[in-house]
Amino acid sequence: MSSMNRWRPVAQDGMLAVAMALFLSVVVAITPHAGAFDLAAALAGSLALVAWRRAPLVALVVSAGCMLALAAHVRPGPAAAFPVIVAVFAAFRAGHRLATALVGAAFLGAGLVVRLPSADGSLRDLQSLSLLVGWFVAAGVTATVTRHRQAYLEEAERRAAEAERTREEAALRRAGEERLRIARELHDSLTHSISIIKVQAGVAVHLARRRGEDVPPALLAIQEASGDAMRELRATLEVLRDADQPDGESLASGLDRLDDLVERARSTGLPATVTISGTRRDLPAEVDRAAYRIVQEALTNVARHAGGAAAAVRVDYAGGELVVQVDDDGKADPDAPPVPGTGLLGMRERVAALGGRLRAEPRPEGGFTVRAELPLGDPS
Known about the structure:
Blueprint: H1 2-29, H2 36-47, H3 56-73, H4 82-93, H5 97-113, H6 122-210, H7 217-241, H8 258-267, E1 272-278, H9 285-305, E2 311-317, E3 321-328, H10 342-353, E4 357-362, E5 368-375
Parallel strand pairs: 1-2
Antiparallel strand pairs: 2-3, 3-5, 4-5
Helix pairs in contact: 1-2, 2-3, 3-4, 3-5, 4-5, 4-6, 5-6, 6-7, 8-9, 9-10
């Protein structure tokens, strides 16, 4: 498409030159005493218009010289000035006003000398010359107006682009300020609360071991989960505070910590299994994080809404996509549609942002299933 756009003006210039050449060929053919030299001059002056955009002064000089040669040998009338008028327009539009005025004046003066308009008397010559002067002036004025209009449009486009860039910068600045505000709020509230949970759980574990008692698995799970939550929260705060580092979330969890996630779910009393199929490979960071979060949210929902159920996590490294599925054998009603809570909406948003598909619904045989298909692009 870009190649066609590049060659389109050249084709248009060629069509203009050919049309002018055909027109002057007819004029020369019906002009008395015209011969091969006159036809060659008319064709050369017309075909010079091929360069009227890229080299307007060259086109003007060549067309003016050829048309004067034609007019000096035969009497083609005002039609011989048409290629020169087009070249005058092009040269004026390109900004060569002084040179164009000089060439135009020289052409008109020489044309008067060789009686370019006609041979029917000096009064008729002056009338035709006045008509040609009017055409030349009109071409110059039209070219000047066109040049100013083009400059105005370019300036308007530049200002629009500048305004758009300014709006984008302002939006980015406001977004950055909002991220910093959220980071401060999270740090001042959530970080403090999680730290207290982690410290209290650690103290409880320490006291239990000091007294020689068995540490409850739930307490160990709280201690581990609070530590993981603190680590991930710090990673999130780093992302919020440093928007120029798109890989800042690399500290966040991915499928490399899937076993830890499932083990933590087991420690809370949720029977869970993991099945991985396909050839494991490096995943795009956003896909890796989304898959982990989907499994995490699905296991949380099983523990929260399907008490006593077992969960089965399946990860399939397919050719062009990653399939993550979490099934449970709870008592979800197949005829009752799921109520979209915050967690389910979050999963849908993550999958949609990656161009994938999410299915979260009761299973016909009972229980609930969450299946996410995340595209990977070309398989590596």
